[in-house]
Amino acid sequence: MEAFLKTLGLADALALLWFVVAWVGYGWYSERSRWARDGLQDASDRQRLAWAKQMLGREMRMTDAALVGNLMQSVSFYANTTIYIIAGLLAVLGTLDQVISLTADLPFARATSRAVWELKLLLLLGSFVFAYFKFTWSLRQFNLLSIMIGASPVLKACAERDAEAQRIGTVNSLAGDEFNRGIRAYYFGLAAVAWFIQPWLFIGLTTVIVAVLYRRDFASPALVAFRGDER
Question: Which of 59, 82, 103, 148 could be bridged to 132 by S-S, CB 3.0 to 4.6 A?
Fold first, then answer.
């Protein structure tokens, strides 16, 4: 461990630590903390439950099927795009020596060892691999959601409808949450790009990403409009 830190350097080690803490910490804050209920994700989950209740009360569900299909199309687009990004990063890994020579002339770039370059590239690659797994799992859960919608009977009784709506809304929320985690991985993947230039820039951009995510999830006009008079 001591040898690894010596090779990495203090600034790079701090940057990497802050990146991990920011990503994991914000994920916990926005999903599991007591403040999460005031965020966009929790508000979306409540709207998904309301959608399920409305859907169960109507016989014609073409609109619901179209909405789920639109959600699946969005997730599929990101999953396909992520595959291309991963392929590109693997190609860069195979030509790392040329990349190191090219970036050495960039302003503010720091000279680092090949091992550190490989770590930076693997961090970026890992971010998008993580995103790919989240998108594909989200897509599969949306598939399950479409099956549940097709299999659900028309329910008018409140007790039966609420129980079934809870099941459908939960699957919808789980799929949406996985999609959100994939999008978050994209944001932090963009921050990881800055590590190739400067560790302090990496720290700064990671901080900016957290601020942007917080504003969009907890302080955006979209959240106010989406929530309406809910509170």
Answer: 82
Given a cut of 60, whether residue 3 has pLDDT beyond it is no
State the average pLDDT over residues 71-92: 94
CB 125 within 8 A of CB 86: yes
Q: Can you tell me the distance from the alpha carbon of 158 to that of 33, in angstroms, rounded to the nearest whole number?
A: 31
* Contact yes or no for 179/199 (Cβ under 8 A): no
Better pLDDT: 141 or 115: 141
pLDDT for the residue numbered 29: 96
Q: How high is the pLDDT of residue 231?
A: 47
C-alpha torsion sign, points 110, 116, 117, 119: negative
In 5-130 the beta strands, taken as DSSP E runs, fall at none
CA of residue 129 relative to chain centroid, distance: 12
Task: Give the separation between CA 139 and CA 46, rounded to whole angstroms.
Answer: 20
Structure tokens at 181: 């985690």
SS3 105: coil
Joined together, the tokens standing for residue 163 give 């129980």
Nearest-CA neighbor of 110 among 100, 118, 95?
100
The phi-psi region of residue 60 (left if phi > 0; otherwise alpha if psi is between -120 and 50; otherwise beta) is: beta
Q: What is the pLDDT of residue 6?
A: 64
Give Cα separations from 108 to 63, 105, 121 (angstroms).
Answer: 53, 9, 19
